[in-house]
Amino acid sequence: MSQPETNPDCITLSDLQGLFESGIPFTLIDVREPHEWASGHLEGAQHIPLGQLLTAPEVLAPLNRSEPMVVYCQHGIRSMNAVRYLRDKGFDAFNLLVDWPSIHP
């Protein structure tokens, strides 16, 4: 996975497409709120709102630590916080740089 030089914890939509095409298993996590998830989400994503991720450690148990994780939200701030948390917990996590309103108006 290529990462932007400015932040090695980030990937782009192009990187995500390449990951899908590569067949490498990974976990896609949407950390937006339920009403945001209901308005649309990326195919194959798991929904774990950021507040739940940070306060309910049991949500980490079913996640596969051997796969990279790609995390996204509306604009990248919540997913950045989720990536920091997941990396602190030993996950190989990446922040998907996406402006959700621009791809799902």
TrEMBL record:
Q: What is this protein called?
A: Uncharacterized protein
- From what superkingdom does this record's organism come? Bacteria
The record's listing under InterPro entries reads:
GlpE_sulfurtransferase, Rhodanese-like_dom, Rhodanese-like_dom_sf
Under the heading Gene3D superfamilies, the entry gives: Rhodanese-like domain (3.40.250.10)
Annotated SMART domains: RHOD
